[in-house]
Hints:
By secondary structure, the protein is α+β, with helices and mostly antiparallel strands. It folds into 5 domains: 20-165, SH3 type barrels, CATH 2.30.30.140; 178-210 and 279-425; 212-270; 436-619, no CATH class; 626-819, Transferase(Phosphotransferase) domain 1 (Transferase(Phosphotransferase), domain 1, Orthogonal Bundle), CATH 1.10.510.10.
Amino acid sequence: MDDGKEVNPPEGIVLKVEDVMGSHIEDPITFWGQPIELIEDLLKISTALTEICPFAAKVFGDPAPGKIYGGLYSEDQCWYRCKLKKMITNEKCLMTYVDYGNSETLKKSCIVELLEDMQYPGLASRFRLWGLRIPHNQDVTPFDQKIEEKLKQHQETELKLADELKHAVETKIKSLTNKVEKLRRVRCEFNENHFGDDLSEAVKVITEACLYMLHSMKKLEDTWNEYNCAQETLQACNSMDDVHILIDKRNEVRSSLYAAADEFISEVEKLPIEDRVNVLKSLASSLDAAYGPYEVEHNSNEMFDQFFEWRDNKLQEFNNIKHRTDSSLQLLSEWFRKTMKFFDLNSSASLTSTEVINDVDAVLDQAEQDVCKELEISTSQKDDADIKIICSAFNKAMQMIIKEQDLLLVIQNKYEASIQFKEQVGQWLNSYPSVEDLLSIKRSVKNLKAQLRWKLVEKNNLEDLGSYDQVKVQEMKEEICRLRDDIYEEICREQREYERLGDIVQNWFPELPLLYPEAAIRTYMQSAGLLTDSLERDLFDPEPMKELSSKRPLVCSEIKSQKILLKGYSVDTATEAQMIERAAQYHRAWSVLKEESGLLPILYLFACKSEPVTYVMVPFYPGWCLKTVQAIKPLIPEELCKVMQGVAVGLQTLHNSNIIHGALHPHNIFAVNRERGVVGDFDFTKTVDQRNIASWMIADKLELVAPEVRNGQPAVLASDVFAYGCLLLWLNFPKNNLKTNSDGTPDVSELSIDPKMLSLVSRMICFNPDDRLRVDQLLEEDDFLKLKKPDIIQEETKAPAPDEIIMNNVFTDETKSDLLGGDST
């Protein structure tokens, strides 16, 4: 009533009277409630939620509108069905309890997922007192509070009455048995690693059986350092007066080092190194799988103390709860036994009903409370503080594992080095290396060379007579050929002996070059084994090639069925030293892969005794120069692919040693047997920039010199890549007069070329050297040298006749080196 007048229902409206239990009041005339007949349904829902919600998954993300969840009501800490009304913050939601009508703000951690069988409409309905309305000027707050209190009292009364319904005992026992059944499964499946059991065992293994720096290893390292210092001092010594004193000191330290290595080996062999390595590897793998990834932290050993303290507390708490659960269930079991005796009419036990029923509710409640608590701890996730302690202990454990693994690796490497040292140095403890074998070979070479000269004089004298015995002359020629082969064989033996002595000098006796200057060991080592004074031009049966070389002495010959080329370079003292240094650097690069290096090998260097000329001896590939091959019979795509891949490998070999070829052009590449690409050597008397601007750095009209070099900048590794990319264009488009862009790069816009290959070539011939592909990147490209139609369509060219080649190509100034097996002359 708002004005004292009675309000009648509208005409046609039939009023219905029903008993309703109010559960929530919105205002003095509006409330929520449930018909009395649904009270038992409410009780079933409450019982089901009590069993389900504590073990249900927490809501992930934001709750979905319209979906029903389980919510933990703040007033009584019981679970009720609810759904989203609105989001308050990222972590808080306003939820409406669908079976009671009231709402409250809940954290996401208090909301859990419910299965489909709980997704049905709420039992609460909204009611309004008929004919009443609230005056605009009336404060309804005090009234609301009173009604709310009355409603709560009424609700508590109704729930209390519901507990006394006929199935209350069955419901309570059923709830408890379900939880005990779950607890039994959890105890069977529960992994004590929940409290870091495996991490605890790992920490014990790491800390209790850790291998530390061995005493003998520290002694070994100190003695090694002393030995290396002694060797370095000997190597730097240039005085014969001091060398023997230094040798004695070195030998004394070497004996000490031998004893230290022996002691270290004995100590290591007594340790379970391999077993420890395997244990640490297994530990690292299992811990990383359980707790990874590993993060570097600067933790002290206190992290382990904190971890063990946390673990002990957790285990104590868990064991206490398990003990209380076992005690509660034991009391309940005793009650069931007494009850069985009481209801057994044949039993002689004299029990009263009071003794049976007394405190049964307290026993049941305590059992359920303890079971729930153990379930909660057994299945709950660790909080942030727990996770931080475990992660810190894990990171510290991994740090110690890695540190010990590194130490074990050092021990293993030093053990192997010590074994090798003992084996190698053992022969020198009571002996000293001799250069007599080398000197003997040199004497043999001199003797053979004297025989050869005598035979040559004898042959020349016989031929000068005019009339001579042809058979005898032929026998002399054969004898001369055998002598040349014998001399070369002895020189090869000399090189092998130099290699042996060079290794001895490098590793054990650096004083040998000083003690035996006549052996010229230092000269051999400085030239990477190329320079020899045993070779002379007159030892060969030379075939002068004046028509092919107008700039330097050039001859070809054959030794032991191998065609070789001798290229002479005019040098002075400074130029000769630079030449030897560059040739040695080139030879060291070749020596890494040798035949697989993609480089033309240098066989020997030797100086002419009568004039300032140094000769380079290389294999001779007549007719296999790329320029000549393309002029006579161009490579087909499959052959071109193999050859240019070999050229790329050759460039990579040089670039890996930081050597810029600088003279890559069609005359300096060899397509050996049309299937193996070899990069030729270059003029070692010139700098890379002097080689790079040479007039023969063209392929027909295609300029191979990189733009940066033409602009006056020094050549770089990328300058070789530019030349390589231009050679690819020349090989596939020999008759296409490519235009040049304003920046000096070839214009490929009008070429018929596959887009992928166009992109690849463009990255080799671009203007900026920093943007060009490296050779190692080029070799890794999937589309590298897939030179098959229609990728790159080779232009058909008509091969000229051999005579035409000789007249118009081979003997021009541009192509004189086509048959030389080396750089252009």
